[in-house]
Design a protein that fits this description.
The structure is a homodimer. Helices cover about 45% and strands about 15% of the residues of chain A. Chain A is built from nine helices and nine strands. In chain A, strands 5-6-4-3-7-8-9 form a seven-stranded mixed sheet. In chain A, strands 1-2 form a two-stranded antiparallel sheet. Chains A and B meet through α1, α5, α6, β8 and β9 of A and α1, α5, α6, β8 and β9 of B. Chains A, B: Its main location: cytoplasm.
């Protein structure tokens, strides 16, 4: 890999490019230009070239990129050339939704254990997974060599859930609770805020109203 | 507003800054520097200043920003100085999770109608909302002056759901289905991909393994 200091925005776009390339590949398309990728995902062609340049030389001038090669390469960069086992805590509505979310499996993510401390949920079945008590987490983590935990509990339980994940030696946490949690520096933590994208919509609708009212 | 051409990444960060300022305000903190904001949300101080500069002059050199003023201003820019009514289609697990998601209400988003075409779901109650058939959408949109629709249906139904929203004159759509949908140019569309952030984690875990193996 060319450099370890890749901006997170580049990694995010790489994930989007990778999905776009998968779609092209499924359609049987074999070559693609940076312009096509740019148009398909809504960024500039220069941005696509700049993002890919972090990881080396791709494509042939005037010919473009080989779809399958670039798709596999982006998947490899993102760590998606193998499957990942996820531990999920929180068997509420969001937990159910995540367990049945087709987008995870499509990218090689498999939820291998669902945990809750609510006695009314323990023992229930979500798809082919039984909801386990938190005490069973170490066993499942070891069995599947899981490194990533997903937090889908109410905000008030998010920090203690993160603490348990850290104690159980998970290395990365994806937090869906709309609250800030603290973890040691060696843990990779990202928050999924479900309303950030809503606010891009309201920002744009606001601009639109402003435009109309200034006519 | 200074300029209409604000990069989407700036709007996204503004949404994050705004939440951070709300937290400071709740704690009773009255002034903040760009350095504090930067550290609190994980970007550089220069980035914070650059992002805010799109919207005019803020803060006093050597004193910093007034938390309450900047919080209100960022909320106003994002269109969050008033409430937004959301229409939700899809009363499955994800729909339930979104209806009960505390993060929406905290930012002034209220789901005012839940719709599904599944007869086994219509008439059911999610919190204080009854699940309505799709035919009732125009009535609810008019009643609440809703402009934004949220798609929480399975991928195979996402496009037809978007078409119905467009036909019913919604102006913006937030799509949670892991599939590309097409809408006319005048519709604001954003997709929430639940696995993009997971892929940032796997990218970083990949770098880590690489580092370890090269020791």
């Amino acid at each position: 890999m060319k450099s370890l200091r890749v901006p997170e925005a580049t990694v995010t776009r790489l994930s989007v490019y990778s999905r776009f390339l998968e779609r092209l590949d499924r359609k049987g398309i074999t070559t693609v230009s940076s312009g096509d990728i740019a148009e398909g995902v809504g960024v500039s062609p220069a941005q696509v070239r700049k993002d890919l340049a972090y990881f080396g030389e791709f494509g042939t001038r005037g010919v473009g990129y080989n779809v399958k090669d670039l798709m596999r390469y982006t998947q490899k960069i993102l760590g998606l050339d193998h499957n990942w086992s996820l531990i999920l805590v929180g068997a509420g509505n969001l937990g159910y939704a995540l367990c049945t979310h087709k987008g995870f499996n499509a990218r090689g993510f498999t939820i291998v254990g669902v945990f809750d401390n609510d006695l009314s949920k323990i023992g229930k079945q979500i798809q082919d997974l039984e909801v386990y008590p938190l005490e069973k987490m170490p066993e499942i983590i070891e069995k599947y060599s899981a490194r990533i935990g997903v937090i889908a509990v109410p905000s008030r339980n998010a920090q203690e859930t993160a603490d348990i994940m850290v104690k159980n030696k998970l290395e990365a946490i994806l937090n869906f609770a709309p609250v800030t949690i603290n973890v040691p520096e060696h843990i990779e933590l990202r928050n999924v805020d479900l309303s950030v994208k809503l606010e891009i919509l309201t920002f744009n609708l606001g601009l639109r109203s402003e435009k109309n009212s200034s006519i």
